[in-house]
Amino acid sequence: MKNILVIGAGLSATYLIKYLLKHAKKEQWFITVADANLELAKKKIANNKLATATQLDIADEKTRKELIA
Q1: What is the distance between the alpha carbons of residues 22 and 51, in angstroms, rounded to a whole number?
Q2: What dihedral angle (degrees, nearest 10) is formed by the CA atoms of 57, 18, 26, 65?
Q3: Which end of the chain is more exposed for a tag (fewer CB within 10 A), N or C?
Q4: CA torsion sign, 39 to 10 to 32 to 15?
Q5: Residue 24's closest CA among 47, 2, 7, 6?
Q6: What was the pLDDT predicted at 13?
Q7: Number of Cβ within a 10 Å radius of residue 34
Q8: Closest-CA residue to 7 (of 26, 24, 23, 31)
Q9: CA–CA gap between residue 33 and residue 41 (Å, rounded)
Q10: For residue range 44-62, what is the model confidence (pLDDT) as tens digits?
């Protein structure tokens, strides 16, 4: 399974997140949506079992590097 990290869950990311979730099962992807607003990130994945939402302050270098790794 491939892991895909999407940083940001704003308006411009909405269609990307929908596309990734639509094809996640077939393509064997696990999607992580990271945003400063955790509730927004959770809303975008809509309880999809092939995705998770996390809060990320982009200025937090340690957490950012952990997610990217």
Answers
A1: 11
A2: -10
A3: C
A4: positive
A5: 2
A6: 96
A7: 22
A8: 31
A9: 6
A10: 999 999 999 999 999 999 9
The angle at the Cα of 52, spanning 4 to 26, to the nearest 5 degrees, equals: 55
What pTM value is reported for the model? 0.93
Q: Which residues contact 62 (CB under 8 A, 6 or more apart)?
A: none
> Of 53, 50, 54, 43, nearest to 27 (Cα)?
50
What are the pLDDT digits (tens) for 21-43?
999 999 999 999 999 999 999 99
Give me 8's structure tokens.
């940001």
